[in-house]
Amino acid sequence: MTPSTTALLKPFGVALELDTGRMPEPRNHLVRRASDLRGYYADAAALERLIADGGDPVHYEVFEVPVPNQPGHLMYCISTLQPGVVGEECFFTKGHYHAVPGTAEVYLCLRGEGYLVMKTAEGAFAAERMTRGRMVYVPPHWAHRSVNTSPDEPLVSFCVYPAEAGHNYGDIAVEGFPKRVYRRDGRCVIE
Amino acid sequence: MTPSTTALLKPFGVALELDTGRMPEPRNHLVRRASDLRGYYADAAALERLIADGGDPVHYEVFEVPVPNQPGHLMYCISTLQPGVVGEECFFTKGHYHAVPGTAEVYLCLRGEGYLVMKTAEGAFAAERMTRGRMVYVPPHWAHRSVNTSPDEPLVSFCVYPAEAGHNYGDIAVEGFPKRVYRRDGRCVIE
User: What are the chain B neighbours of A63 within 8 Å (beta carbons)?
Assistant: First the structure.
């Protein structure tokens, strides 16, 4: 029933910086800049100004140490989404479904404030507040995107999902999300 | 391929207190006192003194909001293990295998210091340090137990595991772990 011990993955530990959202010794380090988000924001001209005049700033980073992408294993990462707006729209991550759609994800917010916005392929929408200490459960079949609503603080999250889940970015690149998050006169609006 | 939206679990958020290790509105709240750990420590007489003279103190607490225990879902909890010794042995949790042995678990330490000690049914042993910001990966087939080595601070952890994993406490109650963690003259020893 149990595979031989030599065949088993051995336990290991990884250091995370819970305040900065960094992993000092990652094996995977994903960096998305403003220019990687072309086609995602409502105000495309504002994004181009940010890229040209704003130095194409880092939008978000994800740090991982991968495990076997097999059922029973769990992937985990720490990510940091910078504060900012494109026009009036708060910085967000691309968002994705899982390639294996029937798999959940757990988000634990460690710093900052924002939303996890979620949708199903059939068009249902949900937005859950992310603040320090708030855990958001993304059930199977829900695409998810992080949004940073703070004017000045990064949004840091720790995430766990089944290792076989994978990512499906393509459908969201086409569909988008039914609602967007704006900051106007210092207030957040979802519309 | 996608179940109808009405059949899907809806996203939700839960507040966690990352410093105290509490969940203000849990649906499950497990409390283990010293008397629940009879048979687990090397010095049974010291445990009885702690129960009789020490007021049977709380050893650890686990807070959860359950999700369907079906493949693809993820269970998560926040737990707090109090500091203390039984004789010279540091306070620990009972420890368990998963009832579905081929399932991993992710531990994120939020506060305190200690070890996650792990073993396989074949007798392999591992100990990974738990300090704030350290993530420990418990691969499939490894039983795991938390140990608090601090003289005065609780050990707070956030955990995620596949929802269908379940718990098998019985085998560890019989087998124990190959090594124990002691505090002697202010130093930690694993032997």
Answer: none
